[in-house]
Design brief:
Blueprint: H1 6-14, E1 39-41, E2 44-52, H2 64-81, E3 84-96, H3 101-116, E4 121-130, E5 134-143, E6 159-163, H4 168-178, H5 187-194, H6 202-208, E7 215-217, H7 222-233, E8 236-240, H8 248-257, H9 261-267, E9 274-278, E10 294-301, E11 305-309, E12 315-317
Parallel strand pairs: 3-4, 8-11
Antiparallel strand pairs: 1-2, 2-5, 3-5, 6-9, 6-10, 7-9, 8-10, 11-12
Length: about 325
């Protein structure tokens, strides 16, 4: 009779659908230290994200599958924002000691399938048990062009774009925290917060189209990310409130509760779409070269800081209002 190798069985479930390891080194070689969405060593884009139960996900709100997907998206968006393609992953799992066997199995299956469907090869990791659940991924991607997209690459004359619509995740979280009884009235907002869906290949398509501007993912909110880009690039960024693609459901929910949808759009994190600058004079997003849900929201000029033009013409400073875990 074999012993009950619980951890071995869990790891086996995680590796069940693993993608075969492709022996292919990155085509483009480069090095970049800390400061962007990814570091780069010898051509590998490298990022790491943690998802902690009670902070990033709650299993009384979401399913195990949603929690795992949200975690994987948070890592993949970093690779995308540098114009890369994810390839290899090291995954760490802290199992909440109170999780049932069913929850553990569903988490393992979601991890296995989540990486596999993206063509990402699991090459290692660790499993432990503790008082709260936690997912930890170190994700490696490859550059698909010689020059990656960097936060420091915005130039005067660039236009500023965001992908997708804004405010959904923060609005969904607000609903769950303040009016969970109304969550069914706004299912798209709740679903996006629990399991965001993004255009994961957008960054790759940008660099293939020749974009060499600045880029980062929207994990801490547009107000903070705009300030990151402006400070890293040494430029001034001006956006227009009228151009912001605030999600229609965010506006509807805000009217319902007397809230300002702009707060969700500007300061809500966990969107994971891209914020980028583009120097092309023609709007490439109106052509076929980079199809997708992309909106021009402003421009880059010489100077410093971030400003927003109100509908009445007044220009106000945009302060970073990033979420902090500390």
């Amino acid at each position: 009779m074999f012993p009950n190798l619980g951890e071995f069985n869990l790891v086996s479930k995680i590796l069940e659908n693993r993608v075969a390891l492709t022996e292919r080194s990155p085509q483009f070689r480069g090095w970049l230290p800390v400061g962007d969405d990814c570091a780069i060593f010898d051509g590998w884009l490298v990022t790491k994200d943690l998802s902690v139960e009670g902070t990033h996900f709650r299993l009384d709100w979401s399913s195990p599958e949603q929690a795992v997907e949200k975690h994987i998206v948070s890592n993949v968006s970093d690779i995308s924002s540098m114009g890369g393609r994810p390839r290899l992953a090291l995954f760490g799992l802290c199992v909440n000691k109170s999780w049932s066997a069913e929850v553990r199995d569903r988490v393992a299956k979601a991890v296995s399938e989540g990486f596999a469907k993206r063509g990402i090869t699991l090459i290692g990791g660790d499993t432990v048990a503790g008082d709260v659940g936690m997912f930890s991924t170190t994700l490696l991607g490859e550059q698909v062009a010689a020059t990656p997209l960097l936060r420091s690459a915005a130039k005067p004359g660039d236009s500023v774009y965001v992908t997708g619509t804004l405010g959904k995740s923060a609005a969904g979280l607000w609903l769950l925290m303040n009016h969970p009884e109304d969550a069914a009235e706004f299912p798209e907002l709740v679903r996006f917060h629990l399991c965001p869906e993004i255009d994961e290949s957008m960054g790759e398509r940008l660099v293939r189209a020749g974009v060499d501007g600045a880029c980062m993912d929207i994990s801490d909110g547009v107000s903070s990310e705009l300030n990151h880009l402006a400070l890293s690039s040494g430029v001034k960024i001006e956006i227009s409130e009228d151009l912001l693609p605030v999600d229609a459901e965010v506006c509807r929910m805000s009217r319902r509760y007397g809230l300002n949808p702009l707060d969700f759009a500007m300061n809500g994190g966990e969107e994971y779409g891209l914020l980028c600058s583009v120097s092309f004079k023609n709007d490439i997003f109106q052509l076929d070269s980079v199809p997708g849900d992309v909106t021009r929201i402003g421009s880059v000029s010489e100077g410093a800081g971030v400003f927003m033009a109100r509908p009445d013409g007044e220009k106000v400073s945009v302060n970073a209002q990033a979420w902090s875990h500390l």
